[in-house]
Amino acid sequence: MGCQRPLEECGMWFSTSLLSTLGAFLSFWRKRSPSPSLSAQVFPKSHVLSALRTIFEKNVLSFAGGTMGAVNGMRPDGVPDTSSVQSNEVWIGVVYSLAATMIQEVSGYSLLTFC
To answer: Which GO terms describe its biological process (predicted)?
Structure first.
């Protein structure tokens, strides 16, 4: 029944990179879930806001002084992920999706509250 050891011991690849696309996924799941109660259980509002705050702080503000949008991948130590070309890029569709998710999830608040 699969490997019961840590991922690295099982030979599975994983990353600690913070992905800006997570924001888009959170919004997609929460808005399109067939069950709002299931969505709230899987992704509690406090966890969603925490994830968005982290993405904003690391992937937006820590990249190019916060002037270029959200870099696709950022390491927890604030260094852009260079494990692939895509990680160290800014994709406008991801940036728009992330911004839209922040606006939806933080209704009534300024995005500056994430600063």
So the answer is: central nervous system development
